[in-house]
Every structure is written in structure tokens, then in C-alpha cells.
């Protein structure tokens, strides 16, 4: 009987901790595309230009769409479809008894309301819209609908348009390999291995270039765990290639470009990019790290944005691009795209972050919107991934985990050692991941790498968000139960979390007690861990509790990110910046020596003996 009530309380806590996740809806999910009826009208028209895109090698183009409807209404809308041709034969029946096939069985990749650019559309029936398209390995068409999103009526279909080479290699994203002197390059193309051989040509700036081969992966519709990813949200992801650039010299600028060797002997090339290799672990130099969660994606042409699903995403992206010369590595700690089963959005996201990810390592963590799906092995039995169950995230990005399905790993960058946990799998004491976390924290040489950082998507530490405050513990249920003794034993400096869409910093804390009264400068012994929620990079914001806990030093209901600057082995600067202006709104410094890390603290002392 006792175990029954334990289970009931555990389930209730999980549900309470998850109550916030429905605060926003993927805009494409609002379209009831399977219920589309066809009423093509001879007097209705829609056309798009230019017809051929990327004539100068561009992977992004602006399109003008002109349309007219003899029976206009305020809920008319224009959808962008890719591939351009609707194929009802590939659709599953909507009504099994009648075997009725829908006319369209895949969602558009984006849409706008017809009256967005013309307030007089409902009277005149004519208007034009501007869309920005990226190369997504297939042609495009535009469709004019009446009936709104819930009861779409197809009235006109445009001419198809296409990029000159839809299969071109695009959207490179760098990541640290399993050793400090290895960089990985991952990209997307339309070339399978029976069409072309993928590789990266690279070398130090000004030196001879070498070529490294790449492996090729993809995933299929039957790899998805449920709808919409396996139904209306499915879109072929193309082929994802990863090359490993090894034995890099520390601190050098390397040039690289992506190639596909066709079997006729010609090569299809990408643009030329560059990156700076990582410093040697322990190297005493200026090192700058950016950390945030829950950014999502947004459309620069305003598509899908009526719902304000990720209103801060572009501001964060653009601030990082502007400051890119002063950033060495980026950590995006979960909830990457918020595609929620609409696979086309992964291309949109990789295109959005390409200026960042092609230049500095873009390290990721797994969030509920990447992984969670009922009966799929995720710790939380929720449908947050939209049926993706981790497959796109695990394939589209590289991260140095031993098992890609177990999204935990460690990585080094100069003076920093990072332990990245996976909050969507069991982290509790006795679990496989708990053993990894302890091994990761224990393995660092604090003389060489004094700055020890822990990170997970969900708040396993402290947050005064409103739903956590209702639960009473100010954390993800069971979050810090077993982990806090590891943070204390191994003297973790800072723990970062996303999931909660705001910013909050705690005091250095252990067992709910602030262990340092300072707020802006910390020095000497590491008595406790500072916990930081930095989940306000783009998605709709989360409210705080009205009560401010004693341990909460700074809270901000706005979009932003954190930047860490290690000046050397003894000095660290922490800055919280708002995405809208890039200015610093919260900061602190840490100054200490190696002996301060070694010093004995409560529940963090090495064994001693009285023997001489």
C-alpha cells in the first residue's frame, strides 16, 4: 500500500512538473491539412517568381507570390509546399471504412495569411506576399486556401519553382570531437552515397589542404515513433554527412569547404568556411563560452509568427552573429527547433544557425521537445517531441556521446570541463547516467581545468518558476535529490538549465542553504554551486512565482543568454545578456587559486589519516 501511494505521488509530481509544456503550439499543427477539400476555381490564380533560384550559388532567396481569389475572405491563407507536387496516392486513408484518400497529406513548410500585406484583400481579392525560401532538396509550390486553417479549401496552385541544384551541400555545423584536437563537420545534402562521395577539404590558413572522408546517415518515416512526425509532419530529411578533422594544432585558424565527388569525376563544392581550433586543455588564455536553451526557430519573412511561438529566436541568433568574433564555443542545452514532429523545420533551424554553427563548435543537449514520446524509453511519458523520439536531433547534429541514443557526454575546452547530462533519461542515483555524471565530474584535473560546468535541459537544481513553486521544491521533481552531493563533492562551479523560459541566478547553494552572502564577486573556497536557468533564448516566456525565494539573486522575464569568459586559471567573468540589445544585465566574477579548489568543505572533503 505504501508503494502505491509513492507511485501516485511520483506520477503527480511528474505531471505538475510538465504542466507548462503546452503554453505554445507548433504553428503548423494548427492546420487540419488532411481535411482539405479541393475547389479549384478557374478565376482564382496564384503565381511565384523567380522560377529558378540560386543562380549565383545562393542557398536563400526571396520570392514574390501574386494571387487572386474571386471570393476572398479574411481567413484565406497561402501555404508553401515542398515537394511541389501533391501526391494523394501516397496518403493513408482518412476514413478506413470508405477508404477515402485526402488530397494533401503533408503539411506546408510555412504559411501566411493572404491579407498580411494588404488590408484591402477581403474587398479586392488580389494581393502579393513575400516569402524567404532556403534550399531544401526539392522544388516548391504555393497554394491558395480559403476556409481558414481548420477547414482548408484549396482554390489555386502555383507554378513550381526550384533551386538550380537542390541537392547542394548546405548548413555545416561544427562540434567538438571526442578529443580536444578533433573537430567534426556535419552537413545536409541531397546526395546519397551511390550518387557521390562526401568529403571535407581543409587545412590551416595558407597551408596545403587535405581531404577527409565523411560518413552518411539519414532516417526514414518508419523511424518516427508517432504522429505528426510519421504522418502530416513527415518530410524527407535528405542525407546527413559527418567528417572528422583530426590532429588539429591548438589555436590555429583552419579553412574548410564541403565537397561531393560525383561519379563522372566532377565535384560539387560548398562555400568556404573557417574555424579556430580548440586550445590545449589547461592552456592559460582568453576563452569565451555562450550558453542558452530553448531558442527554437523563427521565420525572417514573418511566416507562422502570428502565434508568437518563438518570438525571441531571431534576436538571440542575430546577437550571437554580431558578437561571433568574441565567441569560442556555443552550448544550446535542449529544445533546439521546437519542430514537434514537423521535420521540415530542422532544415529551417540549421539554416538559421549556420553563420554561428559553421564558425564555432555548436554543442547541443537533449530536451523534451527532441526526445519525449510515450513508450519510447524517455524518462517522461509525454508527447512533446511530436513523434520524433530523438531521431532527428541524434542524426542532424554530432555530439561526443558514447551512445547517440543516450544523450550525455563530456567535453573539454581549454580551461573548462563540461559535463552535459540528459534530463530526458533517468539521472537518479543508481542509474547508468548517474554513474556517468559522477565519472565525468571526478575525471577533471582542476589544476589544468579549474572551471567545472554541469548542464542539463530540465531544472535539476533551482528555479522559482511558477509551476515549480506550486510543487514546492523549486526544481524538477526528484531533480537534485542525488545530484547535489555530487555537485558538492566535486565542487561544481556553475550548473546551467533550460526548459524554463526565463533567466534566474541563485546564490552559491548546497542543501537549500546559501553558503556565500556575496552577489557580484566570489573568491576563495568553492563552498557551493551557483545554479542558473538560461532557457529564455527564444520560445514564449515562462512566468515566475510571486514569492522570490531567499536563494534567488537575479530574475529576468525576458529573452537572453549567458556568456562565460575565462581570463586565466584564476579569473572568470559571468555575464547575462538580453537578446534585444546585447547589453549585460547581470554579472559576477570568480577569483580563486588552485588551493581554494582543493580546500575541504562540508560534504566535500578528501579522506585523511592520522598516520605520519
From TrEMBL:
GO molecular function: any one?
Answer: acid phosphatase activity
- Residues spanning the signal sequence: 1-19
Instruction: Give all residue intervals belonging to the Purple acid phosphatase N-terminal domain.
Output: 172-276
Purple acid phosphatase Fn3-like domain mapped to chain residues? 46-165
Please give the chief subcellular localization of this protein. Answer: secreted
Q: Name one Pfam family in it.
A: fn3_PAP
Q: Which cofactors does the annotated protein need, by name?
A: Zn(2+); Fe cation
- Group of enzyme by EC: hydrolase
Keyword Transcription part of the UniProt annotation: no
Reactions it catalyzes: a phosphate monoester + H2O = an alcohol + phosphate
Q: Where is the Purple acid phosphatase C-terminal domain?
A: 528-587
**Which GO CC annotations does the UniProt entry carry?**
extracellular region
* Keyword terms of this UniProt record: Glycoprotein, Hydrolase, Iron, Secreted, Signal, Zinc
UniProt EC number: 3.1.3.2
Compartments annotated for it: namely: Secreted
* Oligomer status and interactors: Homodimer.
| Name of the molecule in the record | Purple acid phosphatase
Give the organism, scientific name.
Gossypium laxum
Amino acid at each position: 500500500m505504501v508503494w502505491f501511494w509513492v507511485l501516485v505521488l511520483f506520477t503527480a509530481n511528474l505531471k505538475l512538473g510538465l504542466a507548462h509544456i503546452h503554453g505554445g503550439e507548433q504553428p503548423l499543427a494548427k492546420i487540419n491539412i488532411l481535411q482539405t477539400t479541393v475547389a479549384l476555381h478557374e478565376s482564382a490564380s496564384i503565381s511565384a517568381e523567380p522560377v529558378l533560384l540560386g543562380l549565383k550559388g545562393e542557398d536563400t532567396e526571396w520570392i514574390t507570390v501574386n494571387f487572386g481569389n474571386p471570393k476572398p475572405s479574411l481567413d484565406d491563407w497561402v501555404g508553401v509546399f515542398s515537394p511541389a507536387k501533391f501526391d494523394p496516392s501516397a496518403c493513408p486513408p482518412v476514413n478506413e471504412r470508405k477508404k477515402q484518400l485526402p488530397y494533401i497529406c503533408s503539411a506546408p513548410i510555412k504559411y501566411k495569411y493572404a491579407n498580411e500585406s494588404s488590408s484591402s484583400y477581403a474587398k479586392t481579392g488580389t494581393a502579393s506576399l513575400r516569402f524567404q525560401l532556403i534550399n531544401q532538396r526539392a522544388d516548391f509550390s504555393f497554394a491558395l486556401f480559403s476556409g481558414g486553417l481548420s477547414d482548408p479549401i484549396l482554390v489555386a496552385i502555383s507554378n513550381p519553382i526550384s533551386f538550380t541544384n537542390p541537392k547542394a551541400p548546405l548548413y555545416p555545423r561544427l562540434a567538438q570531437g571526442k578529443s580536444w584536437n578533433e573537430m567534426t563537420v556535419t552537413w545536409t545534402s541531397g546526395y546519397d552515397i551511390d550518387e557521390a562521395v562526401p568529403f571535407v577539404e581543409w587545412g590551416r590558413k595558407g597551408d596545403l589542404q587535405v581531404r577527409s572522408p565523411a560518413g552518411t546517415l539519414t532516417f526514414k518515416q518508419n523511424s518516427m515513433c508517432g504522429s505528426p512526425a510519421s504522418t502530416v509532419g513527415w518530410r524527407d530529411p535528405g542525407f546527413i554527412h559527418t567528417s572528422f578533422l583530426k590532429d588539429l594544432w591548438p589555436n590555429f585558424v583552419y579553412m574548410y569547404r564541403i565537397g561531393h565527388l560525383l561519379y563522372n569525376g566532377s565535384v560539387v563544392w560548398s562555400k568556404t568556411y573557417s574555424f579556430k581550433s580548440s586550445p590545449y586543455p589547461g592552456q592559460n588564455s582568453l576563452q569565451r563560452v555562450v550558453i542558452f536553451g530553448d531558442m527554437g526557430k523563427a521565420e525572417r519573412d514573418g511566416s507562422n509568427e502570428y502565434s508568437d511561438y518563438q518570438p525571441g529566436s531571431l534576436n538571440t541568433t542575430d546577437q550571437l552573429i554580431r558578437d561571433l568574433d568574441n565567441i569560442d564555443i556555443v552550448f544550446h542545452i535542449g529544445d533546439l527547433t521546437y519542430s514537434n514532429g514537423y521535420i521540415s523545420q530542422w532544415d529551417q533551424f540549421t539554416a538559421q544557425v549556420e553563420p554561428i554553427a559553421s564558425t564555432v563548435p555548436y554543442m547541443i543537449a537533449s530536451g523534451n521537445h527532441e526526445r519525449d514520446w510515450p513508450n519510447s524509453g524517455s524518462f517522461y511519458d509525454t508527447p512533446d517531441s511530436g513523434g520524433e523520439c530523438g531521431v532527428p536531433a541524434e542524426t542532424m547534429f554530432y555530439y561526443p556521446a558514447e551512445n547517440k541514443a543516450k544523450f550525455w557526454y563530456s567535453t573539454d575546452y581549454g580551461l573548462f570541463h563540461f559535463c552535459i547530462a540528459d534530463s530526458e533519461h533517468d539521472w537518479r542515483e543508481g542509474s547508468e547516467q548517474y554513474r556517468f555524471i559522477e565519472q565525468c565530474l571526478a575525471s577533471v584535473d582542476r589544476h589544468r581545468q579549474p572551471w567545472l560546468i554541469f548542464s542539463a535541459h530540465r531544472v535539476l537544481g533551482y528555479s522559482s518558476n511558477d509551476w515549480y513553486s506550486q510543487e514546492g521544491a523549486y526544481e524538477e521533481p526528484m531533480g537534485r535529490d542525488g545530484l547535489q552531493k555530487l555537485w558538492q563533492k566535486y565542487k561544481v562551479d556553475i550548473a546551467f538549465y533550460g526548459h524554463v523560459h526565463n533567466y534566474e541566478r541563485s546564490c552559491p547553494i548546497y542543501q537549500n542553504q546559501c553558503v556565500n552572502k556575496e552577489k557580484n564577486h566570489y573568491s576563495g573556497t568553492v563552498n557551493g554551486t551557483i545554479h542558473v536557468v538560461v532557457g529564455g533564448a527564444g520560445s514564449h516566456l515562462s512566468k515566475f512565482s510571486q514569492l522570490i525565494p531567499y536563494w534567488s539573486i537575479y530574475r529576468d522575464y525576458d529573452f537572453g543568454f549567458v556568456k562565460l569568459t575565462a581570463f586565466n586559471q584564476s579569473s572568470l567573468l559571468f555575464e547575462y545578456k538580453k537578446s534585444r540589445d546585447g547589453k549585460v544585465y547581470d554579472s559576477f566574477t570568480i577569483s580563486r587559486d588552485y588551493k581554494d579548489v582543493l580546500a575541504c568543505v562540508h560534504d566535500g572533503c578528501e579522506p585523511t589519516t592520522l598516520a605520519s
